[in-house]
Amino acid sequence: MTTTRQKAPVLVVIELKGGLDFMNTVIPYQSGVIRDARPNVSLPIEDALPINDELAWHPAAKALNALYDAGDVAVVQGVGWENSSRSHFRAMDIWHTCEPDVIATEGWLAKVTREFDPGSANPLTAVSFGRGLPRALAASGVTVTSIANLDQFGLMTKVEVEEERTKDLDSFKRMYTPGVGSGIVQDYLAQTGRSVLKSADMLADVPSRYSSGIEYAPNSIAQALRDVVRVHTADLGTRIFYTQHPGYDLHANESVTQPQLLTQLTEAIADFMDDLRGQDASQEVTVLVFSEFGRRIKDNGSGTDHGSAGGAYLIGDGVAGGLYGAYPSIEPKDWLNGEDLRPTIDFRSVYSSLLDQWMGIDPTAIVGGAFEQITPYAGKVGTPR
Amino acid sequence: MADDRIDLMAHLMRRVGVGANRDELEQLIERPYEEVVEELLHPGALSDPDQDLLDRYLPTSTSPEVPTGWASRWIYNLANGPRPLREKMALFWHHVFATGYFKSSHARTSVAQIALFRENGLGNMRQILRDLSRDPAMIDWLDNSKNHAKAVNENYGRELLELFSMGIGSYTEDDVKAAARAFTGWTFTQPIPIYPYSTSDADFAFDEADHDSEEKTFLGQTVVDGDDVIDVIVKQDACARFICRHLYNFFVADEPQVPSWNATPPRNPDAIDVLVSTFVESDGDIRQVMRTLLNANFFKAARFRRVKSPVEFVGGAIKLAGVPPVPNLSVARLSRAAMLMGQELMNPPSVEGWHTGQEWLDSGTLTERVNFAVEQMTDTARPGIASIVRRVAAAGDATPEQLVDRCLDLCGPIMASPKTRATLIERAEEHGSLSCSNSPTQETEARIGQMLRLIVAAPEYQFA
């Protein structure tokens, strides 16, 4: 590791559900091939925000472009894996479990959580905001806190007499004691119930401790990232945050909907970074943005169908910004199966680099093998903060 | 102490709906089990007064823009209506054919789609898929209106095979392309508008000029249009297995998550085989498959083998506390409660639908579930609770053990673990034995209320 940090490194994962069109985010904007292949989703050349002579950001990603120009964004190009799946289900499962060939039940981030907190001493080591717990954070014996509403997190809150409530919570604790031989689901439930009691105690005063001048937009991704800052700055030992931004499965109306989503997403990330910096809590944080796959090279008249290679984005003060991996060849002779971008870097390479160089743990067991690494944390170039 | 006939009937009613109260169960067991099943399988025979009542008392639940109010009515009907299995089949198909409203911002089509499942949810698989493929909400959701002869959009073609009928591994990428081509030109009139939120219906339309009428090879057979594709699908063993496994997962016992099905065998392969043979023999008649399922010993034995979905949890809790005879504003909040537990009706997380079973439960959703159920138990004047209080009191004076056992019985019957039962008894012992007179006192009510709120907070209450 090249950066010296006082606080333990923290990872914030943003999952874009549905398959973000990488080619329409980091766009080969000068390519005639691309303009011919996707006339219905391509932008006017002059609107794009150039990165270099070949590539440009989609204008709706303006806020991310600004962070990129400041040297805080690493774009990993052509991310995928061999024989990738066009099924949302399978592709997302593979990202979550690092198992492309078999069905696995342990999520990669759950394994990371186990590494940091083997005895599940802190239920807030990994925190997910939103509905449902992603597979990436699920593994037996690993306790993760999932928060639907940070401002009202706690049990038996409708029991008004405080003395009764205290007794009820004690009864709850006893009923949720894991028992020998009671079954896997029952054990998991008991463990979950107990962790709620503990995390609710820890989170009780988080909302009142947070104040910030940043006004986040009233959309789900912005509010989730605000919640990340609130919990992170409360210093409760959280190492992994997870949240999702849905809606990227744009088989239709891509040129209308994708800009809306990219604007929401990238402005939320910019506000998030500003907020963290304002609270002197940005140095230890890296954001990973990913989606289950990229989209087909040719458009379908209105949107794009499921494809193969996509992109991943690492964002943070510790990130050495720039382009990583190689942009997949857009020459028709190189198209995978005659219609897709061919992956140039395995998604497990991204995970491995992040785990090894940022989180400081051995990635081999977590991603299931040794994968070539990129170096997004080596030699940060740009304005020191 | 539970009567096994009551226990079995309670199990049946939890699965075909969200459960029944004790008065209902006592009536139901007067008839043979098979007869009750038959009546459930023929919901058309019962009258349906609920819509008028809901229109009258919850006029705001009919927004043309968002289906939240409609979703609340659905949960209310599931808990309170005379035809639970009809509502439950609609919920089943909604799980499988997960369609969201937010893309169209046109609640009317989403509501119409659910009405379709409600009407024909026990029909023939072929007809169900034909209706689905012509349903404007689905056509819009998976972009089939953008699936043109000269610009094929694979979205519907792919998900029809992967998510709606056969599962991954039972077709090739070429089959996806052929299926997509077969559905070109299947669109709808009255384009679903974004603004203003229309109160008009959308109707299916076939645009012949936009249809690729060439012959295609799909799963080795020659097809031309979407109905041909559906005919081929319904004859596949993969379709029978996929749908029967879905039914098993939804009505009998939790299975592993759907995406693992092509690699993970069913937990009870014999049970799936039984359902599959009914499916094949009846040419895909869902009513027949459900008849086999509900009468099977593997079904009767599968008590508390499923984690309740949020909709089942919310519906079950209000059923236990007592559904208001005329709907009030609390009814309008039901869909939001389920949403906070991870299931927003008519707005699934994606076309993949919801992950079920254990994945319903995490620290966030467990918190919402426990708090919602406990809140339902705090008002002992509610009819369901008042009825439990009367029944407990009518059984006479009770030791702490008797109080706990009576409450557990009337809440299900619920089979509590020794740990849960001991915890409840310890709380009951704080106030000693309960002396019951003919008219329950406030103390009796409070003590029973305390028991009920602990019972719905217990781990056992998470299972159906």
Summarize the structure.
Chain A has helices spanning 32-37, 62-69, 88-97, 108-116, 162-175, 184-203, 206-209, 220-233, 254-278, 347-359, 364-367; strands spanning 10-16, 26-28, 49-50, 55-57, 73-80, 126-129, 145-147, 240-245, 285-291, 310-315, 322-324, 345-346. Chain A is of the alpha/beta class. By secondary structure, chain B is an all-alpha fold.
Mind explaining what this structure looks like?
The complex is a heterodimer of chains A (385) and B (464). The two termini of chain A are 18 Å apart. Chain A has helices spanning 32-37, 62-69, 88-97, 108-116, 162-175, 184-203, 206-209, 220-233, 254-278, 347-359, 364-367; strands at residues 10-16, 26-28, 49-50, 55-57, 73-80, 126-129, 145-147, 240-245, 285-291, 310-315, 322-324, 345-346. In chain A, strands 1, 5, 6, 7, 8, 9, 10, 11 and 12 form a 9-stranded mixed β-sheet that branches. Chain A is built from 11 helices and 12 strands. Chain A has 2 domains: 10-149 and 212-367, Alkaline Phosphatase, subunit A (3-Layer(aba) Sandwich); 154-203, no CATH class. In chain B, 55% of the residues lie in helices and 3% in strands. Chain B has 24 helices and 4 strands. Chain B has a two-stranded antiparallel sheet with strand order 1-2. A two-stranded antiparallel sheet of chain B has the order 3-4. In chain B, a hairpin with a 2-residue loop joins β3 (216-218) and β4. In chain B, α8 (125-133) runs antiparallel to α12 (226-235). The longest helix of chain B is centred in the C-terminal third of the chain and has 16 residues, at 442-457. The two termini of chain B are 19 Å apart. The chains are: A alpha/beta (385), B mainly alpha (464). At the A-B interface, α3, β7, α5 and α6 of A face α10, α20, α23 and α24 of B.
